[in-house]
C-alpha cells in the first residue's frame, strides 16, 4: 500500500472514531484514552511503513559544463571544506548516510562527471552501477557563457538519454512499467502536453549555474536562454533551477533539491514558481506547459528544433577538446598532492632513472666493443 493511500485510510478511521465518540457524548473517560491509544498505534504503524517503503539507497548524477560549480554544490551539500576542492578530471564518487524517522539508514550515492569530452563510457558507470529505479540527474550549464549553453546541455542530455534507452531495452517489463508510470506521475498536472513529450525514465533537473553573472545580461539574451531551458526541461519532463553559490537563497534551494531527490524530503523544495526571464527561474516537475512557454500546437519542438532555434538567436560554439586546459601530467598537479604516494612515486622515478642510465651505458659499451 502506498503512503498517500494509507494516510487517506487513516483519516477515514479517525473520522469514524470521532463520530462514534460524539454519539456516546464521551460518557466515560475511557473514550478519550481509547482514541489517544489508537492514534499512538497508527503513528507507530506509519513510522514502520515509512521505514519499509522508503528506498534505502538513491543515486544522484551531476554533469554538465566545466567549472560551473558542480563540485562546490556537492561539497556544500555534504558540508565539506571548500579549501579541499580540486578540479574534477574524470568521474568522482562520494556518498552520504542519513538515519530516517524509521531509524533505518538511507544511503545517497553522488557521482560527478568532470568533463563532457569523450565521456560516453564514463556516463554509463553511475547509471549501470545503481540502475534507473532510484536515479536522479542534474545537468548544470554555465549561464555566464551563453554561447556554450546548448552545446553542453545537448551533449549531457544525449548521453543520459542514449544510456537510459539501452538499459530500458534490457529491463524487465515490470521495471519498464514502473519507470514509465513514475515519469507520467511527475507530469500529472500537465496531462494535456504528455503526448508531445519525450520523457526520461528518471528525474532530471537542469541547473543554470553562475546566475549572479547572467542576471546582468541583456533582457533579449536572457529571454532566449530561458525559453530554451524551459522548452528542454518540459520536453523531457524535467525541472529548471537557476543557481549561484554567491546568492544564499538560490544556493539553499539547490541544496534542498539535492536533499529531496537524495533522501526524499522536503516535499517540494522549490518555494516559488518563477517563469519570468528577468528573475531566477524556478520551475518544478510538471508545472510548465507549452502555452506558458509561448509555443503553439503547430510548432511543438523537438530536441533538434530547440537547439536550432537558440542557435539562430545566440550562436553556439561546438564542444571543443579541452585537453589543453589540463596539466601535462596530472600527477604533478599540486591540487592532487598525496604525500605518501608522492614519496613512493619519487622513489620509483629515481629507480627507473637509474635503470635507464645503466641500459644506456651498457648500450654504449657494447657498441665500442663491437
TrEMBL record:
Keywords: Cell projection, Cilium, Cilium biogenesis/degradation, Cytoplasm, Cytoskeleton, Developmental protein, Dynein, Microtubule, Motor protein
Keyword Translocase: no
This protein's record includes keyword Protein transport: no
Protein's name according to its UniProt entry: Cytoplasmic dynein 2 light intermediate chain 1
Designated gene of the protein: LOC117563675
GO cellular component: axoneme; ciliary basal body; cytoplasmic dynein complex; microtubule
InterPro entries: DYNC2LI1, P-loop_NTPase
Record organism: Drosophila albomicans
Family from the record: Belongs to the dynein light intermediate chain family.
One annotated GO molecular function: dynein heavy chain binding
One GO term (biological process): intraciliary retrograde transport
Subcellular location: Cytoplasm, Cytoskeleton, Cilium basal body
Amino acid at each position: 500500500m502506498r503512503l498517500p493511500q494509507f494516510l487517506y485510510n487513516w483519516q477515514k478511521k479517525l473520522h469514524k472514531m470521532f463520530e462514534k465518540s460524539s454519539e456516546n457524548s464521551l460518557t466515560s473517560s475511557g473514550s478519550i484514552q481509547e482514541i489517544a491509544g489508537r492514534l499512538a498505534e497508527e503513528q507507530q504503524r506509519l513510522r514502520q511503513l515509512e521505514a519499509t517503503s522508503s528506498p534505502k539507497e538513491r543515486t544522484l548524477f551531476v554533469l554538465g559544463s566545466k567549472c560551473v560549480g558542480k563540485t562546490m554544490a556537492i561539497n556544500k551539500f555534504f558540508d565539506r571544506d571548500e579549501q579541499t576542492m580540486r578540479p574534477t578530471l574524470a568521474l568522482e564518487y562520494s556518498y552520504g548516510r542519513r538515519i530516517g524517522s524509521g531509524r533505518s539508514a538511507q544511503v545517497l550515492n553522488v557521482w560527478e562527471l568532470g568533463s563532457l569530452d569523450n565521456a560516453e563510457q564514463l556516463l554509463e558507470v553511475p547509471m549501470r552501477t545503481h540502475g534507473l529505479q532510484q536515479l536522479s540527474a542534474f545537468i548544470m550549464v554555465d549561464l555566464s557563457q551563453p554561447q556554450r549553453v546548448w552545446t553542453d546541455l545537448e551533449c549531457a542530455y544525449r548521453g543520459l538519454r542514449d544510456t537510459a534507452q539501452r538499459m530500458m531495452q534490457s529491463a524487465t517489463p515490470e521495471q519498464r512499467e514502473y519507470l514509465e508510470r513514475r515519469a507520467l506521475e511527475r507530469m500529472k498536472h500537465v496531462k494535456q502536453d504528455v503526448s508531445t513529450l519525450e520523457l526520461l525514465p528518471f528525474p532530471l533537473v537542469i541547473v543554470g549555474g553562475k546566475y549572479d553573472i547572467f542576471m546582468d545580461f541583456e533582457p533579449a539574451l536572457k529571454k532566449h536562454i530561458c525559453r530554451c531551458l524551459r522548452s528542454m526541461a518540459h520536453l523531457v519532463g524535467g525541472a529548471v533551477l537557476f543557481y549561484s553559490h554567491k546568492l544564499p537563497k538560490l544556493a539553499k534551494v539547490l541544496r534542498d533539491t539535492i536533499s529531496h531527490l537524495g533522501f526524499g524530503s522536503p516535499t517540494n523544495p522549490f518555494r516559488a514558481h518563477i517563469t519570468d526571464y528577468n528573475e531566477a527561474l524556478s520551475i518544478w516537475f510538471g508545472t510548465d506547459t507549452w502555452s506558458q512557454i509561448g509555443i503553439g500546437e503547430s510548432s511543438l519542438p523537438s530536441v533538434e528544433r530547440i537547439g536550432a532555434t537558440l542557435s539562430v538567436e545566440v550562436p553556439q560554439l561546438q564542444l571543443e577538446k579541452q585537453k589543453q586546459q589540463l596539466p601535462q601530467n596530472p600527477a604533478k598537479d599540486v591540487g592532487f598532492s598525496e604525500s605518501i604516494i608522492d614519496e613512493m612515486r619519487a622513489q620509483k622515478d629515481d629507480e627507473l632513472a637509474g635503470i635507464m642510465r645503466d641500459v644506456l651505458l651498457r648500450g654504449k659499451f657494447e657498441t665500442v666493443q663491437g
